[in-house]
Amino acid sequence: MPSAVVISTIQGTILSVFSNILAQCIKAYRSDTPLSLNPTPTLTFALYSILSTPPNYFWQELLESWFPSYTTPPSPPTSKSEGSIQQSLSTSNTIKKFLADQAISAPLNTLAFLAFMKGSALASRSHTSMSELLWEVVRDFPALHIASLKLWPAVGLLSFTLIPVERRVVFGSFVALGWNIYLGLAMS
């Protein structure tokens, strides 16, 4: 049986491919042109998903180990409480996890996405340099990061409060279905 990270990677990749194909369909519809699927951006999104899902999965596990979502309150052992241990959502751990995720993972994921997508696009051109790639990433980072702040913090809060750790990346992949359509349209 494949591991949870492999399953999450496969699911995320399928959703990423689907979102890019949908973006191409929407673009053709909006421009009133016949649909001609371009496999290059679809494969680029798929490869990015394959490469980025495992680190994000392990990041979620690391956050959970640092700041567990649920804690068991200490209670004196009684005959009533022995059979039913109540766990409650740790508000302080959820806030810490959210802040760590937004301060560390959000900008790193945005930078990685831009570097990968811009690098893939530049690789197809002749006479490109690393400085050109860096310039494009630095130029585009603020706008994309600000756009991401309109969606991903809310997703993070929902994820940390309602979604089990082993399902968070898949939940994020479902949300990313819409986000990737937006990115596919914005980058085409």
Automatic annotation (TrEMBL):
- Which Gene Ontology cellular-component terms appear in the entry? peroxisomal membrane
By its UniProt entry, which Pfam families does this protein fall under?
Answer: Mpv17_PMP22 (PF04117)
Give the way it sits in the membrane. Multi-pass membrane protein
- Keywords from the named record: Membrane, Transmembrane, Transmembrane helix
Record-annotated membrane-spanning stretches: none
InterPro entries attached to this UniProt entry: Mpv17_PMP22
Similarity annotation: Belongs to the peroxisomal membrane protein PXMP2/4 family.
Q: Tell me the protein's name.
A: Integral membrane protein, Mpv17/PMP22 family
Classification lineage? Eukaryota, Fungi, Dikarya, Ascomycota, Pezizomycotina
